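The following block was generated as part of the benchmark described in Methods. Ligand: nicotinamide-adenine-dinucleotide.
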Amino acid sequence: MADRVGFIGVGRMGGPMARRLLARGYELVIRDVDDAAVLPFKGQAGVMVCGSPREVAARTPVVLLSLPVPATLDEVALGAEGLAAAAERPVVIDLSTVGVRAARRVAAALGAAGFGYLDAPVSGGVSGAEKGTLAVMVSGDPTLFATWKPLLTVIGKNVFYVGAEPGQAQAMKLANNMLSATALVATAEAMAVAAKAGIPPAVALDILNVSSGRNSATQEKFPRAVVTGTFDFGFLLKLMLKDVKLFEELAEDLGVPTIVAAAVVNVWRIGVTQGLGARDLTAIVQLYERWAGVQIRASASATATDETPGREG
Ligand code: NAD
């Protein structure tokens, strides 16, 4: 039983994390509302698929969650068929990004019901989840953390203890994602201007990546998913809007002015209002491509699109 792990939400991040645990010899008890997410696990040795979080809680000493939004966490933890509806009381470790308010609310409700709870959001994307190189930020009871740290090291090379207050790890994760979201839109702006000035995108990235403007977008997202034209980095655009909004909410709760984040959240909001919410987050660059009338591709010299003023014909 000790080597059995529950996993609820086996999507883009949860799927590869669960696969790493299985490869490491843990038995898995999984639950996802999407059959397509469960399909790769069906029939695999050591995997049991359940119909509700309650059933998962009844079968495992620890349950990991990787869920999209705060409302999903509420439903999975506290809903009619949720974890708290079980008679058993496993430890719950939430790997999702749900923000500080939700983490506190669920930690209090599950704590009152007798569950141990850690919030443990991750960073490093789908490739980090596949390779087991995620950063895992954990807050909650230090004894619980010490007990479950070995399990978390299977999914994350860098496991950090942030503090004893539930939600502190969420605050840290939101600070990270505000920077990551800012880096991507700022890089889109800079690359669109460089392309419009006639600089081939591949040359611009080579220069940026050995210069002071380098960041996670110039080093990873643009080379892998923008200049290739694939736009498939592995994170839904609407989930990045969720993260920067949660950052804004936290800053407001703490009374901290957020001049940059206010601008950044609006760019992501425009992305969603322009119909890009269900696309990969790198599709945000396509807004800038449209506005500048350029395409930022490796094959391009500075490619002008049909919309480029003054370049037609
Ligand atoms: P995803 O949408 O691919 O995966 C979420 C999974 O949860 C889906 O398979 C979905 O069907 C499932 N789900 C939804 N409601 C459910 C319910 N009620 N019960 C059970 N399962 C349910 O999203 P993701 O990209 O894997 O992100 C998961 C979390 O990790 C999010 O909070 C996200 O912000 C965070 N995150 C994502 C990345 C990334 O690069 N994708 C990186 C770090 C953190």
